[in-house]
Write a structure and sequence with these properties.
Layout: H1 4-13, E1 17-23, E2 29-34, H2 36-40, H3 43-57, E3 64-68, H4 71-83, E4 86-93, E5 96-98, E6 110-118, H5 122-133, E7 137-146, E8 158-163, E9 168-169, H6 175-178
Parallel strand pairs: 3-4, 3-6, 6-7, 7-8
Antiparallel strand pairs: 1-2, 2-9, 4-5
């Protein structure tokens, strides 16, 4: 099991934690950003995080692992591989998320839903909804990094490998905007 210090050392080595003024995918603003792709591009650094998630679920009875695109695909694949389970991924659609590319779910199949970084839980909720629409069910949720101020209640067991609550702001209430700090939208070109 990784200690908090070991996890933080990996995140620092991979340059995951950024400080500035960021526009998050959720539309919120934040002083801190977790650049998941610095971790996802390094299998040697990502593996211990996925191993922690897999270890947490190894005694549970379920059919497979589901993750939302984009980063959740990598996490779900690796956790499923470690557990010898099937892997599904929920792609973004105009109506939320769905299982495209002929992915099938048999009625009553159960899944753990995993993702890379949790801020609001929107991608995870949409993945859970997609499972339900297809006759499956989610039995637990796991994330690599939980940056939420207060973890959302998914109505399921929830775990994170690393938790670091970060305050997020509505754009109209953002103190960083009021200070005149330049807003960065990560995820695109540098």
């Amino acid at each position: 099991m990784l200690s908090r210090e070991e996890i933080e050392a990996i995140l620092l080595q991979a340059e995951v934690i950024k400080e500035g003024h960021f526009l998050l995918t959720s539309g919120l603003h934040s002083q801190y950003y977790f650049e998941k792709f610095r971790l996802l591009e390094r299998p040697d650094l990502l593996s211990p995080f996925c191993e922690e998630l897999a270890r947490s679920f190894e005694k549970a009875d379920f059919s497979g692992v589901c993750g939302p695109t984009t980063g959740g695909v990598i996490i779900s694949y690796e956790v499923a591989r470690l557990l010898g389970k099937r892997c599904l991924f929920a792609e973004k659609t105009k109506d939320g998320r769905d299982f495209l590319r002929s992915q099938t779910i048999r009625k009553g199949e159960s899944f753990i839903v995993v993702d890379d970084v949790l801020t609001t839980g929107g991608s995870i909720r949409a993945s859970i909804d997609a499972l339900k629409r297809h006759g499956g069910e989610a039995i637990a949720v796991g994330v690599l990094i939980d940056r939420s101020e207060k973890p959302p209640d998914f109505g399921l067991p929830f775990l994170s490998v690393y938790r670091n609550p970060v305050e997020n702001y509505l754009p109209a209430e953002c103190p960083l905007c009021k200070e005149g700090l330049s807003l960065s939208k990560p995820g695109g070109k540098a």
